[in-house]
Amino acid sequence: CIAISTYGTELPIKSRLVLAWIAPRGIVAAAVGSVFALSMMEAGVADAEKIVPLIFTVIIITVVLQSLTAIPIAKLLGVRQPSPNTILLIGANHVARAIARGLKEQNIPVYLSDPAWENCRMARMDGLACYYGNPQSEHAERYLPLTTIRSVMALSPNRHHNALGVQYFSHLLNEKNVFSLRSSTSHAKANKDSATFLSRQILFGDNGSYARLSSLIAKGGKVSATRISEEFSWEKYQEMNGDAIPLFILNGDKDSDDDSPVKLRPFTINMEKPPQQGERVVAMLPPKMSVLKDPNNGKSKEPKEIKE
């Protein structure tokens, strides 16, 4: 019935096939089955009392069967929605854009949001998706890809925008997936910040303030990704990049044949688990750190940096 009723519509054939397979069965029969069964029993129809149990048996079997096969069939037809893998950045200022470009280079989907049109325009010129407006607005519920968002990071220099975003998305997503840059302690006390906002101001550790990130970018700092290995450990990375601001830890590489997202962990205050072997560290490097030593042969070489 679903396949026939959707014939001639703009719905793709693969979507129609999936809908036809998972469409509920027996709803009308379940609603009126008992009425017909009583009438048939009064009329003396043989085995009329078996109609209701038969109807619900068919419903249970089809529900279980369709539940077990819906995802494999959707994946086979290529209509399965991938796991949430987009990082929403609140703010499209130059700091947020630099970080977004770095994540995009590492195949991490990023979406920015800013109520300032000039910031959105600059982001779109950089090839970054940007929502013009407040991400917690009713309009954003219709136009932001909320179903694909797995983490929110408030990077606006306006602490009020950060506070509203953290408070709003902490209810939509798990609170542990929402982060914000730190605001000054004096402002927090004066404005009586919520406990949620105070607890999520942990992004990029003790030194990862908006002012410092902005200063590094203004001086020519760039976002760079480095893989931690047995020869080049996290301790050695810190020794050689003492002035860098670590931003993220990436685990896994994006494979076109696999829809599982790359695991991303932002550096936070009191971070318990340091980067492990095989993981990548994405950091903001100052301009003077343009030449690093190759841990394999001790020769100098240009590091692989993410283009802005």
From TrEMBL:
Transmembrane residue ranges: 18-39, 51-74
Region (Disordered): 286-308
GO cellular component: plasma membrane
Any one Gene Ontology BP term: potassium ion transport
Membrane topology of this protein: Multi-pass membrane protein
Localization (cell): Cell membrane
Keyword Ion transport attributed: yes
Residue stretches of biased makeup (Basic and acidic residues): 299-308
Coiled-coil region: none
Keyword Transport: yes
Keywords: Antiport, Ion transport, Membrane, Transmembrane, Transmembrane helix, Transport
Listed GO MF terms: antiporter activity
Classification via InterPro entries: NAD(P)-bd_dom_sf, RCK_N
Domain called RCK N-terminal: residue spans: 87-190
Main location: membrane
Name recorded for this polypeptide: Sodium:proton antiporter
Organism: Pseudoalteromonas prydzensis
